[in-house]
Write a structure and sequence with these properties.
The complex is a heterodimer of chains A (110) and B (149). By secondary structure, chain A is an alpha+beta fold. In chain A, strands 1-3-2 form a three-stranded antiparallel β-sheet. The mean pLDDT of chain A is 91. With 149 residues, chain B is an all-alpha fold. Chain B contains six helices and no strands. Classes of the chains: A alpha+beta (110), B mainly alpha (149). Chains A and B meet through helix 3 and strand 3 of A and helix 2, helix 3 and helix 4 of B.
Chain lengths: 110, 149
């Protein structure tokens, strides 16, 4: 299981990247993250919503009420222009961290 | 005998009592709960067990309230929005002012006439303040945003 600090830090870039593929809603976002991480990246489900609301209030994403297949109302989120910019920044920073770690690990085997 | 609808209603009441009072998060959380319970029931889990699993997975009300409160703290009028509101407000006030002067021929609408101040001064002051704060804020609006995320 991944440490909760890392899970929290990766939440925003993860959500932005998922929403870049199209609009989605809370439950689907959680399921997608679980599936893509093979169940290793586990959020407390309820904690996703404050993160989504914070991102919405910062203008990174927008929300609209729609309907689910069963007719229940559902809140869909999609990416805004500022969200795309934030995603690019996140990607750059996480790539840097990854490359530094990968470089260090490589040196250990030389 | 377990009643799913009653249990969901009780859970919602518990959330309300704990302080999650705004409808949007509560509705969203309830939808999430229903969706998760439904998925688990489809996999063959009993409604009671599915409900208990979902409630546990959603998390406790106090922690959620704390997180949602952080969201409320970060909500502030962004400078660009303030600038836009200020400019629109000033424009509308000016148009109304000129409309009154030239179309209706009301002297009280004329700039700097003796009746101008009480009629329009407050409007100009308000929208000018929005415009100025919005303008300087847009240039470097970090100072208007809470630093704590």
């Amino acid at each position: 299981m991944i440490r909760k600090e890392l899970v929290a830090a990766s939440a925003e870039p993860m959500i932005l990247a998922l929403l870049a593929n199209g609009e989605s809603y809370g439950y689907a976002i959680i399921q997608e993250v679980k599936a893509r991480s093979g169940g290793k990246l586990q959020w407390t489900d309820g904690m996703l919503y404050p993160v989504l609301h914070r991102m919405e209030s910062r203008g990174l994403i927008k929300a609209r009420w729609g309907e689910s297949e069963t007719g229940r109302k559902r809140r869909y989120y999609s990416l805004k222009k500022d969200g795309k910019t934030a995603m690019a920044k996140h990607h750059e920073q996480w790539s840097l961290v990854h490359s530094v770690l990968a470089g260090l690990k490589k040196e250990q085997y030389v | 005998m377990f009643n799913l609808e009653q249990s969901i209603a009780n859970w919602r009441t518990h959330m309300l009592v704990a302080g999650i009072k705004t409808p949007v998060p509560l509705d969203e959380l309830e939808n999430h709960l229903r969706e998760d319970v439904g998925q688990q029931i489809q996999l063959g889990i009993s409604p009671q067990q599915a409900f208990e699993n979902s409630v546990r997975q959603i998390g406790c009300a106090d922690e959620l309230k704390t997180e949602f409160n952080k969201t409320r703290d970060t909500k502030c009028i962004r400078p660009r929005k303030m600038l836009r509101m200020g400019v629109i407000g000033l424009s509308v006030t000016l148009i109304l002012n000129l409309f009154g002067l030239f179309v209706l021929g009301k002297s009280s609408c004329a700039f700097f006439s003796h009746q101008w101040w009480p009629d329009w001064f407050a409007c100009y002051c308000l929208w000018s303040t929005f415009t100025v704060i919005g303008f300087f804020g847009s240039a470097n609006w970090k100072w208007l945003k809470p630093t704590k995320e």
